[in-house]
């Protein structure tokens, strides 16, 4: 997957895609226990199609743009990556071309954190949520909203085949800022 960005532009261009989902081993899927909703859908092509791990099924919107996918968490979570599976070869004008990712405490205060342009995507498109500052490695939020702002070939409705949201693995030792991996370090990590 290639990434391009020109100075002064907020939009990132993503091209290509990968047939298999590839993420760092220190990330875990966070959206399993979240409440999912969509702005609209055709009968039989709703939220369940986004989460069934089947590339043949898809969410199909039904209505005016932007098309929204809302992911609400019971508690504040740290998120690092959004992965979308889209297929330009199969979906053509239904394929998203511009996607916005927003985060906040709820619908009332969502802020746009990333906008990407997808150029004929085919496969998994990874959208990192980190900012331009290297210290901003994740987004701490109660809600994530993925908005499809436009489609290829000026299509009206959209197809998204899968969405996964990833965050950092929890620290195995509570109240410990470092993640020790060797048995010896873990043994001496607490004071008795």
Report on the structure:
It is a single chain. The protein is mainly β. The protein is built from three helices and 13 strands, in the order ββββαβββαββββββα. It has helices at 47-50, 88-91, 183-187; strands at 2-4, 11-15, 27-29, 35-38, 59-60, 67-79, 81-87, 96-104, 111-119, 122-128, 139-151, 159-160, 162-168. Strands 1-2-9-8-11-6-4 form a seven-stranded mixed beta sheet, with no helix packed on it. A four-stranded antiparallel beta sheet has the order 3-13-7-10. A hairpin with a 6-residue loop joins β1 (2-4) and β2 (11-15). The longest helix is centred in the C-terminal third of the chain and has 5 residues, at 183-187. The chain is elongated and about 65 Å long. It starts with a strand and ends in a 5-residue tail after the last helix. Mean pLDDT is 86; it is low at 1-9.
């Amino acid at each position: 997957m290639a990434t391009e960005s020109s100075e002064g532009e907020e939009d990132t261009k993503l091209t290509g895609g990968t047939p298999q989902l590839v993420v760092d081993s220190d990330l875990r899927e966070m959206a399993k226990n979240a409440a999912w909703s969509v702005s609209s859908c055709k009968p039989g092509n709703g939220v369940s199609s986004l989460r069934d791990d089947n590339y043949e099924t898809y969410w199909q919107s039904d209505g005016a743009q932007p098309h929204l996918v809302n992911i609400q968490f019971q508690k504040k979570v740290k998120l690092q990556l959004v992965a979308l599976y889209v297929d330009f070869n199969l979906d053509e004008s239904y394929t998203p071309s511009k996607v916005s990712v927003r985060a906040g405490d709820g619908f009332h205060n969502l802020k746009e954190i990333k906008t990407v342009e997808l150029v004929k995507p085919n496969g998994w498109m990874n959208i990192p949520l980190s900012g331009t500052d290297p210290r901003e490695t994740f987004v701490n939020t109660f809600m994530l909203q993925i908005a499809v702002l436009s489609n290829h070939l000026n299509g009206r409705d959209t197809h998204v085949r899968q969405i996964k949201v990833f965050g950092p693995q929890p620290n195995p030792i509570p109240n410990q800022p470092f993640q020790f991996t060797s048995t010896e370090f873990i043994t001496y990590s607490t004071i008795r």
